[in-house]
């Protein structure tokens, strides 16, 4: 199982990084999503992998349990990455509609263009 | 337990939603609320500074859960000083934004501003690594909104780039925290300090990975080479008051580096022996060089100031890279200075660029009251380049003195001194093009334009206050340095921190 989880994290991360390097809004958003999945699975695995074990200590019997803390961390990370993805989609949409291009990187043109008309 | 410790987080957190939901249609009401909240924040942080000045480490247990099971907030000299710095800078920036009507050019400026303060104060106060991540996200999500405040094509594009960069950084942060938890089983900073020092060196491979990953994350925030490239595009295209507020954001990264690599991965930890200093030093030298070359090569005023910020972060982290109490004390003085210097110049650039209509570094007919702005720019440039008599000079002198005993002293001195010279040339060039050559283009026959209105006191208050802070830092350098020396001594007293948080003696930790 360790092998499957580890390679899943690796594949997700590799895919995410590849998509981010495409420097276009849509692939980048997908890449960020893949990366956040990868990190969520990774966080889950930091509490050691245990199957069919509840995250509760049993004081009557010596049964195995899984570490509850990474589960709480993953929950927080999921909520935050969900919110961040929403913000990213909105800003990407706004930038696409304004600039008529979905490229992420700044071109020389953008750099040279002073911000006239924007107030600063 | 002193409940005031959590007030810098709770106050903006309660105020922001009220501003966003109740006062969104009434900009006047939102302004009053925002200013009142920030004044209260400044008052509270003054109180906290007085509390922390006794040299104790004050701990606030959230929900009264004992550490390391619950989240703790920790108030010591460093965090109290950083919170006070945040609130004073916030007050200056807020005043400027209101006086120049920047807050009215888009929606929800004040709500986002308060959320930003909440995140920054929380990041300075927290004593838990995962909680630090959460506060980073709070301050980032507010900064995304502030960054694209006012809109515009280039700004939205720069904002998108900034968001993507920081989202990737957050993912990296989570990977680092996961690795840290996997190898130590805790995320409380005090508990981490104990566990990291107990871990046998041969089992510390994952720990080393997480130490370097964390450094990478904080380097992104602190704009350290090779991850400094996002900063010029972001600061140059952000609304100027927001860029001035962002002066504190790079300091959050520097603060996190100082906190983590003295407390958790301190110089006495065998597992990461000398690893961090030997990475930060060359990176900081290159950062200084990039900043200086950027200032010299910039074709616009705002990118030039952004590169000056990059250069100042390099100088600051050069002091930090020594990881000795003297050098970190000097670095903290430079941190205070560079925050106000950057804020002063960004606010001034806002006034100048609004009047010129363009921030290109080329001669254009002079603006009304050219001499007044030129004088302010002169003082600000003296501050930021580190010439006497302002605090930049003292700060750089202290940093030079702080790294004197390091084996890489010659490299550091050369970087800072040559960097300063190049920066001075860059600022002299910019000042003479924007203000001096402009007078040659002036039409002596021309009448004063009828709509020319002398600039109001309100609009100049922000710039004047930031410059006054530089003067005060220089005049009261003695007492400030006294406080900072005690601060960095406290930083290196890991066992006192651990004892205060965990309530048990941190045995043989130094």
Task: Describe what you observe in this structure.
The complex is a heterodimer of chains A (120) and B (510). Chain A has four helices and no strands. Chain A is mainly α and 120 residues long. Chain A has one domain: Helix Hairpins. In chain A, α1 packs antiparallel against α2 and α2 runs antiparallel to α3. The longest helix of chain A has 32 residues, at 68-99. The model of chain A is unreliable at 115-120 (pLDDT under 50). Chain B has 510 residues and is mainly alpha-helical. Chain B has a domain at 274-443 and 459-488. Chain B has a two-stranded antiparallel ribbon. The radius of gyration of chain B is 22 Å and the shape is globular. Chains A and B meet through α2, α3 and α4 of A and α5, α6 and α14 of B.
What's a quick, concise take on this entry?
The complex is a heterodimer of chains A (120) and B (510). Chain A has 120 residues and is mainly α.
Task: Walk me through the topology.
The complex is a heterodimer of chains A (120) and B (510).
Chain A: H1 2-20, H2 25-45, H3 68-99, H4 108-112
Chain B: H1 7-21, H2 27-52, E1 58-61, E2 72-75, H3 77-99, H4 109-125, H5 129-147, H6 153-184, H7 189-198, H8 205-222, H9 230-237, H10 240-245, H11 247-264, H12 275-297, H13 301-321, H14 325-356, H15 370-385, H16 391-402, H17 409-440, H18 457-475, H19 477-491, H20 494-502
Helix pairs in contact in B: 1-2, 1-4, 2-3, 2-4, 3-4, 3-14, 3-18, 4-5, 5-6, 6-8, 6-9, 7-20, 8-11, 9-13, 11-13, 11-14, 12-13, 12-17, 13-14, 13-16, 13-17, 14-15, 14-16, 14-18, 14-19, 15-17, 15-18
Average of pLDDT of chain B: 90
Strand content of chain B: under 5%
Count of extended strands of chain B:
2
Question: CATH fold name of chain A, please?
Answer: Helix Hairpins
Derived from helix and strand composition plus strand pairing, the structural class of chain B reads mainly alpha
